[in-house]
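Feature request disguised as a bug: please show the residue count (443) next to Glutamine synthetase, type I in the output. Example input:
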Amino acid sequence: MRPVEEEVLTKIAESDTRFVRLWFTDVLGVLKSVAIDPVELERAFAEGIGFDGSAIQGLSRVYESDMILRPDASTFQLLPWCTDSDPVGRMFCDLTNPDGSAAQTDPRAVLERALDHAAKLGFSFRIHPEIEFYLLKPTRDADGRIVPVDEAGYFDHVARGGDNDFRRRAIEMLEAMGISVEMSHHEGGPGQNEIDLRSVDALTAADNIMTFRTLVKEVALREDMQATFMPKPIAGVPGSGMHAHMSLFEGERNAFHDPSGQYQLSRTARSFIAGILTHAQEMSAVTNQHVNSYKRLWGGGEAPSFVCWGHNNRSALVRVPNYKPNKPESARIEYRALDPAVNPYLGFAVLLEAGLAGIENGYELAPEAEDNVWALTDQERRVLGIPSLPSSLSSAVKAMKKSDLVAATLGEEVFEFVIANKEREWQEYRAQVTEFELRQFFL
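Example output, currently without the count:
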């Protein structure tokens, strides 16, 4: 048994943990869980826990359904909302086939493969996510509409507002689980909040996001609220994004930093940005995976709709934040299209591979966008060579189908499942008769 596994068994004994939940996600990023008694954990470390993979979205076909959960002991934490009486722990799992080989359909394994590719080039990949979400009242109004918990706006301090206490309690629980928080505040929409997590390696960041979404929903329910990570839950107000600040490191050195470069960006960083911009359209069905995602991207509220980059330009898809003097480790780029409903393992994997493609193939970075891109006309954007992101899930899937990069990153089975699932989602969405149509055309 490895030392880290022995440490987990000791922690469980000392805390009198009653159950251990083994966490993993399906291909769509939905959290899955199975609880085991701590006495089973030593066997789980040694042999894994078998389950029917065909019952989980995208993991396996019926005729090859046996899969194994392998707990990652380094991810063990007690769940702070379950410690009142019987403490409960959790660990993320890697999925394997019965022969011990990594399951090609495990989203965590998809990201691990991309990180292995980066490591072979000498890089580690770090991410700092800014996660937005809405807090809603538990019941709808008389007209059936969802109701935000407040009518506040960006950075507003709501006197006696539930948001302030909510964010404080959520952050206390996150930090109790070893997830460091940089800042939190009210966002631009009524009931909209943002909590920013500190920069960590990409696999830990993805695990943290899955924990974050679960924890926020748990805290909200305990505060008599509902939390949603839907990209655009309310028409006419800003959607929720998950801006991702990204950097590559070579050992302890930030590979994105060059004191002599424009905006202190290295050639590596410029090629990485060029890779992301080159492949942005074909990645959209992964980074923005739902029909609702495109209502955020094309619904205003500072959502990025056009494929360009800029220094401190919030209308650009990729933003280069202001560099902090004497802090080369803070050099980074910000990808602004991700939304909080993404499967973070798949989303980070395609972003990383797109950036690495730019580095390996020497992509040249186009001139930056200095104007407010939203304010330009279509003709002006064409002259500047600024294409748009897909305007719907349907067009995003069409772009993804042509992508060798996304296919290679996800692997054949995940690639085919995502396409089939998203085509089905689009067809089901098209079949709906909406309230808008009834109001406009019923009479």
